[in-house]
Amino acid sequence: MENIENTTAEIEQSLTLAPAAPDKIYTIVDIAGDMYAFDSRCVLEILKFVELSRPERLPSHIAGLFEYDGKMISIVDIKSVLNLERKPYDENSMIVILKVDNNIFGVAVNRVTDIQRADIVNLQPVPYNSSHNFIECIYNGENMRCGVLNLNSISSWVLGHPDDSDCANGFDLVTKDPVSVEILHKRKLEYLEKTNKNPYTMFSDKDEFVSFFVGENRYCLKMNDIRGFYKLQETKMIKVPCTPDFILGLVNIKGDFICVIDIKNYFHSQNVPYSGSGTIIVLNSDEFKIGILADAVSDNIQIKPDEIRLLKKQEGKSELTQYVKDGEIYLIISVPDMLSNDKLFIR
Length: 347
Known about the structure:
By secondary structure, this protein is of the alpha+beta class. Helices cover 18% and strands 39% of the residues.
């Protein structure tokens, strides 16, 4: 994309836009019977509850330690942090592994209930003042209301908070029933065996995808491959000369110039003029600033990894595979393969 980068300076002089407001993707969890939300960009993995280690007396808000990706991390009893009713954890509870800045830790929750895309107009400030600011805002959606956790504040508190000897111990909430203990121990061994063979990969039962329409085709992107959603009508598209037809142009989003791709043209050589509306799905890449223009964003779906492995490659392209569910055909885009394609590099 050499020509695009050379044109950026000229565009910056002629284009001044207010940052577009993205939708946000949240992981919704049940903590002691109440609903809370994590920013999904910070979620590395969701695990069924496993056996935790406790080599010495730990701070009361730490339920135990767990070996994740070859490193011991803390598993936080979030009930202690939020001062909630201390309902116990059992073999049906879950652990959400988070990465906040450079701090990786787990949070014990009773359930992970959903992954939802939230319109920012439904995010409201908390109606009180707090010294901790553990809740950054309230998500007041059509079908659900929950507190959005401020993961930066929680991460800082977990790292810097001393032991509270007067507080109940988070480890006491972990089930001690012999049958459950055996189940948790077995899960821990299974996880360690998997990670030793293939470190730092997702081992959840199902992977979450976002589906969207471009024309009559329905495509899917893995949730972790998405950085954000932005309304096209809230930006201004600038066409860049001497670029392939599948590059619609550049848009300014939060000070970054994003190259917007027409995937119908990219994958199928179908050149259909865009209407001026739609949603730009910005891909999650530190190296490339690329977005895909979608006519409409649809439902989130879960696809098992073994279902993807059996898929047939479409038109000889490694970036595109096919998945069929309930009579609907989904074209799954492999973002790593797409970003490594020489086709995106202009010489």
